[in-house]
Write a structure and sequence with these properties.
50% of the residues lie in helices and 11% in strands. Helix 7 packs parallel to helix 9 and helix 9 packs antiparallel against helix 10. The strands form 3 sheets. The protein has a 4-stranded antiparallel β-sheet with strand order 2-3-7-6, with no helix packed on it. Strands 1-4-5 form a 3-stranded mixed β-sheet. The chain has 3 domains: 114 residues, Acyl-CoA dehydrogenase/oxidase, N-terminal domain (Butyryl-Coa Dehydrogenase, subunit A, domain 1, Orthogonal Bundle); 108 residues, Butyryl-CoA Dehydrogenase, subunit A, domain 2; 151 residues, Butyryl-CoA Dehydrogenase, subunit A, domain 3, CATH 1.20.140. It contains 11 helices and 9 strands. By secondary structure, the protein is of the alpha+beta class. Strand 8 and strand 9 form a beta hairpin.
């Protein structure tokens, strides 16, 4: 693994930090959280102008053609500011799968707008985040019926979707949402649905960190074959869902590293200025040890994140690396945000003080797409399966 960043990656980090730090303040976040959409469109436009939204979009569609590492750099900067924008949903949940598995027609419909900041994407993955019995993707709660079948058995006229997908990030502002749906023959298709289509109902729902993750209800919604990932082949659907989940988890890891790092930095500043018994709180052994433990947790989160992202970008087996990174981000991440809030004492419970927002984001990321126990169980199954097959156990 290469532990250093390239010049291009360093430039991405510098640009991302400049945009977020220059435009995001606690007052601005509070202002946007009070709106119906909870979407900072001014920041979104700035990210587009800085060519950051299209980092992982192919150059043929106006993007930079980068991969998971560059997206993780961007999402880490996002986590440091907990800005209310659908960055993870658009770039990772929607953009990556469309760019890699979408038809040329779907790419043309989605990717140039993503790069320009005029298209918001997302995906309904909460219901398929994991099957505790097998360790693989869960069964979709939405059902797909073919409107017609070609000679290979693939839908020739598209599919009709029925069912509900729950807690879909930012679907209330999305132009397309990728919805996994189970077919009658045991397969899965992933459909790019327009939330404004006939038969679609978006039921508003809110998360721990004040984001909007509505429930999506589908009543015989028609989707054309060109809007199905993987050429609409039901036999490929579960593999594509697993591919999507791996990148979604790595994206959450990057967000959590940024959240935890910023929370600890704010806490260090608070401890250096707040005094008790005539001394700064930072000079007390108890506060120093707890802050040091948080710093160690963050470094463990960081190194496992980059290992997972690097392996994904290089086409190497990454299931175990992703599970390790996800477990660290969720387990250690919640420890960090708990510690930083506790070290603020009574100020940590004041919702007018910024630190509480990092606690809420840390808890949200901890449980999103499966909590730490689910990730640890998934990792354990991978180790057992490798031992049974005689493979060496490694990341």
């Amino acid at each position: 693994m290469e532990f250093g960043f390239s010049e291009e990656q360093a430039a991405v980090r510098q640009s991302a930090e400049a945009v977020f730090s220059g435009l995001v303040t606690p007052d601005r976040v509070r202002e946007v959280e009070a709106t119906d959409d909870r979407f900072d469109r001014g920041l979104w436009a700035a990210l587009a102008r800085a060519d950051l939204l299209g980092l992982a979009v192919p150059e043929a569609h106006g993007g930079a053609g980068y991969g998971a590492v560059e997206l993780a750099i961007l999402l880490e900067a996002h986590g440091r500011t907990v800005a209310p924008v659908p960055l993870w949903a658009t770039t990772v949940l929607g953009g990556l799968p469309v760019a890699t598995h979408g038809s040329e027609q779907l790419r043309e419909a989605c990717l140039p707008g993503l790069v320009a900041g005029t298209t918001v994407l997302t995906a309904a993955l909460a219901d398929v985040a994991g099957d505790l019995a097998t360790g693989g993707p869960g069964e979709p709660t939405v059902r797909a019926e073919p409107t017609g079948a070609g000679p290979t058995g693939r839908p020739s006229g598209g599919v009709v979707l029925t069912g509900s997908a729950f807690a879909v990030p930012s679907v209330h502002v999305a132009d397309r949402v990728l919805v996994p749906a189970a077919t009658g023959d045991g397969g899965v298709v992933i459909a790019a649905v327009d939330p404004r289509s006939p038969g679609v109902t978006v039921e508003r729902a809110w998360t721990t960190n004040r984001e909007v993750h509505p429930h999506l209800h589908l009543d015989r919604v028609e989707v054309e074959t060109a809007d199905l990932l993987g050429d609409g082949d039901p036999a490929r659907g579960r593999v594509i869902v697993a591919w999507m989940l791996a990148r979604a988890w790595v994206g959450l890891c990057a967000l959590q590293v940024g959240v935890a790092e910023a929370a600890l930095a704010q806490t260090a500043g608070y401890l250096n200025t707040r005094e008790q018994f005539g001394r700064p709180l930072s000079t007390f052994q108890g506060t120093m040890l707890r802050a040091a433990d948080a710093a160690i947790d963050i470094e463990a989160m960081r190194v496992t994140l980059w290992q997972a992202a690097w392996r994904l970008d290089h086409g190497l087996p990454a299931d175990r690396a992703v599970a390790i990174a996800s477990w660290f981000a969720k387990e250690a991440g919640q420890r960090v945000v708990h510690a930083t809030q506790h070290l603020h004492g009574g100020m940590g419970a004041d919702i007018d003080y910024p630190i509480h927002r990092y606690f809420l984001w840390g808890k949200q990321i901890e449980l999103l797409l499966g909590g730490p126990s689910a990730q640890l169980a998934r990792l354990g199954r991978q180790v057992v399966d490798d031992l049974r097959s005689g493979q060496a156990v490694s990341a």
